[in-house]
Amino acid sequence: MTKKKMAIKNKSKIKQFRFNFDGVQKAKSVGRILFAAASVVCIVFLGNKIVGVYEGVWPVREVVLENEPRYFQKNALIEFVRQQPVQGMLAIDLSEIQRQAKRLDWIKNIEVRKVWPDKLIFTVEEHQPVAMFDNQVLTQQGGMIKNDTRSSWSVELPQISLQHKDEEQAEKANDEKFYMAVWREYKQVKRQFELLNLETDLLQVDQLKNWQLSFTNGLQINLGRKEREERVARLLQVYGEIKDKQKIKKIDLRYLNGLAIEWKTET
């Protein structure tokens, strides 16, 4: 089937995002419209065998994105629609369009409906981002959005950097469950540090799985490979007694019953 070209049409006065199909032909006579309407009854009985006959009847002329997207790119939806065969309103398969559209980045759920005689309306529910893992974004539902490196993520999302020791560990890291497990533990640790008025800036996980946290005030804390929540809890008990906290450069919690402090060098 020949695909039709589309032109983008923006209307700043309307919050909805719209783009129109060019080059499609409307029904040229009232007789054709009446014939097409009557044919709906036939489709009920003849099913898929007759759908092809009406692919050009009441062609789609306008597509509307009903809600303004926050994360996914409008151009991605435009390209998606462009790749679809241009079909008439009688023949278009909404369930298939919805199934395919859910493969697009950031789209959690999508509803497509027809508005006669020639309009399709898309309503999109987006995934919600929770953390940035190197060049990938973890969503609230546990999925990963790859290669989305917009600069705003460095401000909007917690930053987590992973280093992988070998191919086996790297392959494991591609498992979405692995990322979600790291994120859940990080959230708990982050809440503990908030009790000390310490705001996390970056989590780095090295090849040995040691966790090193950097904070917005420049402080660095090494939590080690295990019992991280217990180690933070131990720090909570003594942190208030430490003097000259602003002079602390690093804290190492990888000790059984204590901690080590590295002080800033005076210049």
TrEMBL record:
Entry keywords, A to Z: Cell cycle, Cell division, Cell inner membrane, Cell membrane, Membrane, Transmembrane, Transmembrane helix
Keyword Isomerase: no
GO cellular component, one term: membrane
Keyword Disulfide bond: no
Residue ranges occupied by any POTRA domain in the UniProt entry: 58-127
GO biological process, one term: cell septum assembly
Chief localisation class: membrane
Any coiled-coil regions, as ranges: none
Signal peptide positions on this chain: none
InterPro entries the UniProt entry points to: Cell_div_FtsQ/DivIB_C (IPR005548), FtsQ (IPR026579), FtsQ_C_sf (IPR045335), POTRA (IPR034746), POTRA_FtsQ_type (IPR013685)
Subcellular location: Membrane
UniProt-recorded name of the protein: FtsQ-type POTRA domain-containing protein
Phylogenetic lineage: Bacteria, Pseudomonadati, Pseudomonadota, Gammaproteobacteria, Oceanospirillales
